[in-house]
# Entry
Amino acid sequence: MSAVQKLRNMLADPDKFIVCPGVYDGYTARIALQEGAECLYMTGAGTTMSRLGMPDMGIATLNDMRDNAAMIASLSPNTPLIADADTGYGGAIMVGRTVQAYIRAGVAGLHLEDQVVSKRCGHLKGKQLVDAAEFTCRIRAAVLARQQTAGGDILLIARTDALQARGYAEALARLRAAVAAGADVAFLEGVASSAEAARLVADLAPTPCLFNNVPAGVSPDFSTREAQLLGFRMAIYPVLALEVVYPAVRRAVRQLLGSGRVQSVEEDGKRWSPRELFEVCGLAECVKFDRAAGGTGWLEGV
# Structure
């Protein structure tokens, strides 16, 4: 079964809530896979920060995002990967090219939004939107590109950032138009309360809705159970790895520069050897493959 079919089957199960840990590179993806994640989410903010060292302000290009998504998807081809596709990176033709590039990269699902091309993180102020007709055009372009990709499929998630600037009614109308144009899932960015979340799910039923969990952002920090009870069918956690890596690396650098020695970040004082870290990224599988091919580089062990 392909990753996209697996994702569609998960979405078709009314009792299933799809939890997508946010990853931004091969290492964080490997950690999530090791811990049993059934679905991954490639964050656009994390991709921009890790690959370019820049903030999420519309700086990453299609090539940046596609290349990162292709690498992450290749690590476990049967595990669905949902990836941020921002605005589609241009007009209808470019949106179509983006969708086909993501399909060929092995991405199982993507979301497209209604900000202008020079977009910004959905939890920052001052977002500018294209008009509703252009947003719907982006979704139609995505649907056409999916149809025209031989043997290809991808879950299309329509995201609107209209709530903060234009209100709930405008945001709902945009999502309804996107679903009518062929989007599979609705994504309202910046849901402000549990009451608003429940209203959204009811207003868009039976279309499945996605919740974006960004702690300290503009939305409540719903647990997976809370989000499911509100009626959401899936949730993405884009800053999961970013948030925990920042204080850990900062602490280690401060220790090194301050005392000349890095202490453990684990409570029990454990330090991790290179071999243990490599094992997260498939060391045993690589050695096994080499031996099966007749390689001799690892006959004496690792």
